């Protein structure tokens, strides 16, 4: 679905990513993990033509999308859910969904919005409430639903678990997995909740200082003690019969 080849990008003259290459297979969940400052969010911004691309290529189904204006990428089937500021706080849930369906006809937008409330029942409960009054988890569900309103081929998800309680973050992760399994959506997800993301993901990339340190099966990365401990805060239990366990990490919302 998406191929990024030898990408070097950043902001202004500052280079953040160095000769980075990733593949995102169709109808799979590809996870990008790594410490803060690794360049994870910059990767998504590069795909969306928000960051500056200095060299390399970005292909969507074998067609170059490098340099295409951000608003035109939605028409090509890419939906981007940013980490913050991903809903209109002063509009109702329904109005948010209709805003996200701006490319659809009124009847199509109405039908699609109703479909979103079936996929995410919590939104149906609060359909006439202002988005700004929703809990963090409910806003994430709304943001994902808004992304789906565009009928995307590919969804880019940036740090959906930020500032959420663990039980709510788990719920959001399960919804992401369900989008892949039941809707067949291709997903590229940047996530700080590394252990859970690797458990539900198909393919994983570990980014460190703008470079790929690991690429391959997502669950297999959990069995790389040195990489997990050094870069993800996932430490191997002293009891060899146990799985890895998540250590205390700095989960600040600094750009990744």
Give an overview in words.
The protein has about 260 residues and is α/β, with parallel strands linked by helices. It has a domain of about 70 residues. Helices cover about 35% and strands about 25% of the residues. The chain has a 6-stranded mixed beta sheet, sandwiched between helices. A hairpin with a 2-residue loop joins strand 4 and strand 5. Helix 6 runs parallel beside helix 7. The radius of gyration is 18 Å and the shape is globular.
Short overview:
The protein is α/β, with parallel strands linked by helices and 256 residues long.
Estimated radius of gyration = 18 Å
Helix share, percent = 25-40%
Order of the strands making up the biggest sheet: 6-7-8-3-9-10
| Biggest sheet layout | 6 strands, mixed
Give start-end ranges of low-pLDDT stretches: 238-256
Number of extended strands: 12
How confident overall, as mean pLDDT? Answer: 86
The end-to-end distance, rounded to whole angstroms, is: 24 Å
Binned strand content: 25-35%
- Sheet/helix structural class: alpha/beta
Anisotropy-based shape? globular
Number of helices: 10
Helices and strands, in N-to-C order? EEEHEEHEHHHHEHEHEEHHEE
What descriptive keywords fit this protein?
disordered C terminus; alpha/beta; four-stranded antiparallel β-sheet; 256 residues
List the helices and strands and how they pair.
Blueprint (H helix, E strand, L loop, with lengths): L1 E10 L2 E11 L4 E5 L6 H8 L4 E9 L2 E2 L5 H4 L4 E4 L11 H8 L5 H14 L1 H5 L10 H13 L5 E5 L7 H18 L2 E5 L3 H7 L2 E6 L2 E7 H4 L3 H8 L1 E2 L9 E2 L10
Parallel strand pairs: 3-8, 3-9, 6-7, 7-8
Antiparallel strand pairs: 1-2, 1-4, 4-5, 9-10, 11-12
Helix pairs in contact: 3-6, 6-7
